[in-house]
Specification:
Length: 509
């Protein structure tokens, strides 16, 4: 008998429909699987056959052929086991699922005892099934909470193949979609707060501006000056994550297998801080089987690179294009993959290897060593940093003073107001933040009168700016004006924005 079951394959961040066809006919008892299969899928033959035996299903001695279609797409992973087992049961006429095979998608890995094992990428695959018009998804019980986050499709969780008769009888119910309730749940109070930061008013101000306009930010300063401390508190001043953003981020974590049944939805803006030994593939994504990297895991949040010059040069240069495009493109022979990368890049570094340059009383690096250290950060990457702030050594009186500092909640309120002004300004344009404006948009949304034009010309010539740096100064000035609730950019806004490129001129000349 011929049968057909719907399954789903994961390719990067996309789900692709796969048809699992099974034909059981007279002939020598044998089972063969075809359809451009990876090693894990070929091994499904043994897993499925043993799982069926151990759950009480006795397959008749037939010649069985299983085809995974379309045959020109390579199938990899273990998520096809449940679909193959269901197709075998239908072909052997051991169960009758009615119209379910036409309306549902079956996803899951099988253990030898017939239990369903959770797989990665459920959120993406269930979303793809819904978009393809399917009404139901059958998934491992351990993935059910994650799959139920997708609105518009029923998700039924199975613990074992022993529940297949109950599924056929319609006695298993789908989990309710609680995605909006989960987003409204308290994600827990922030473990860190800006009120804990003493002094460093310039760094605090730069962090606020960066958060308001989603600008990239670089701290340069001596060890222990608070660079990392402030960077780790930036997510606490960003607006709360929206439902659409939470689902997009959760899909990335799902593909990487980082979601659990207890926490199937990311309720907070990500903060990723990879170690400086990270490889280019781990940072931006890729590999033989392309997977998202750290920049995608930080989507709609903060990617923090501490000790920036210590990162591999290839890894840092690989960031340049994703920072411009806000997504990662990876091309392979079997196809192209796209991963989201809409991040706020925050980096911190010392001005030399010992960290105390230009204080020659403490720094004993030679000029050549300082120059070599700073050159590990290329000019094109520096041009992509909207704000570059020097972190001065913290004074003792600032360290021990007990005055109340402004809290993250107070700063976040101003950031949200600035974001609201940007949303109103860019409505219908596809732009969300000041930092995302193109050169054409800068001319439109950052008009300058004759006096401001002369001032910008002087800055451009004195600092030897690139076109990219020129536009970034105006974007930062636009954000400063938004924080001050000004309709137009003032000379003071331009002067402050240009001042945030001072360390570039001081250290890199």
């Amino acid at each position: 008998m011929y049968s057909k079951i719907n399954a789903m394959a994961l390719f990067g961040m996309e789900g692709v429909l796969i048809r699992v066809e099974c034909d059981a006919s007279s002939g020598l008892p044998e089972m063969s699987m075809v359809g451009f299969l990876g090693a894990e899928v070929k091994e499904a033959k043994e897993r499925v056959r043993t799982a069926l035996k151990n759950t009480g299903f006795t397959l008749p001695p037939r010649h069985v052929t299983v085809n995974l279609s379309p045959a020109d797409i390579r199938k990899e992973g273990t998520s096809f086991d449940l679909a193959v087992a269901s197709a075998l049961l239908l072909s052997a006429e051991l169960i009758d699922l009615g119209k379910l095979p036409e309306e549902a998608v079956f996803i899951g890995e099988l253990g030898l005892d017939g239990s369903l094992i959770p797989v990665s990428g459920i959120l993406t695959m269930v979303s793809a099934a819904r978009d393809a018009g399917f009404k139901c998804c059958i998934v491992p019980a351990g993935n059910a909470a994650e799959g139920s986050l997708v609105e518009g499709i029923e998700v039924i969780g199975l613990h074992s193949l022993t529940e297949m008769p109950e599924l056929a009888a319609g006695r298993l119910t789908a989990l309710p979609c609680r995605v909006r309730e989960r987003l409204e749940e308290a994600a827990g109070s922030d473990e860190v707060d800006f009120s804990e930061v003493n002094g460093q008013s310039v760094m605090r101000r730069a962090a606020e501006i960066a958060a308001a306009g989603m600008h990239n930010l670089l701290f340069v300063g001596t060890p222990g000056s608070g660079k990392t401390m402030i960077a780790r508190r930036i997510p606490t001043i960003l607006p709360a994550i929206s439902l659409e953003e939470a689902l997009e981020v959760s899909k990335v974590y799902s593909v990487c297998g980082l979601l659990s049944d207890e926490h199937p939805l990311i309720l907070w803006r990500p903060f990723r801080s990879p170690h400086h030994t990270v490889s280019p593939y781990a940072l931006v994504g890729g590999g033989a089987k392309p997977k998202p990297g750290e920049i995608s895991l930080a989507d709609h949040g903060v990617l923090f690179l501490d000790e920036l010059p210590e990162f591999q040069k290839a890894a840092l240069e690989a960031l340049r294009q994703p920072l411009e495009d806000r997504e990662v493109h990876i091309a392979r022979v079997q196809g192209s993959y796209r991963f989201p990368a809409d991040v706020m890049l925050v980096a911190a570094m010392n001005p030399c290897r010992c960290g105390y340059y230009p204080d020659r009383n403490r720094c004993h690096c030679s000029d050549a060593e300082v120059s070599a250290y700073l050159k590990r950060v290329s000019r094109p990457l520096l041009d992509r940093m909207d704000l570059c702030v020097e972190a001065p050594t913290l004074r003792y009186k600032d360290l021990v003073r007990k005055a109340e500092n402004e809290s993250s909640a107070a700063i976040r309120a101003r950031v949200e107001k600035a974001r609201a002004r940007q949303a109103e300004r860019f409505a219908g344009s596809g732009i969300r933040f000041n930092s995302r404006m193109s050169g054409k948009d800068v001319k439109l949304y950052c008009p300058l009168d004759a006096e401001k034009e002369r001032y910008m010309k002087r800055i451009f010539e004195l600092k030897g700016l690139s076109a990219r740096a020129y536009h970034r100064i105006l974007k930062v000035a636009r954000t400063i004006a938004d924080l001050a609730e000004r309709e137009n950019i003032s000379l003071e806004d331009i002067a402050e924005a240009a001042g945030y490129r001072g360390p570039e001129e001081k250290f890199w000349r």
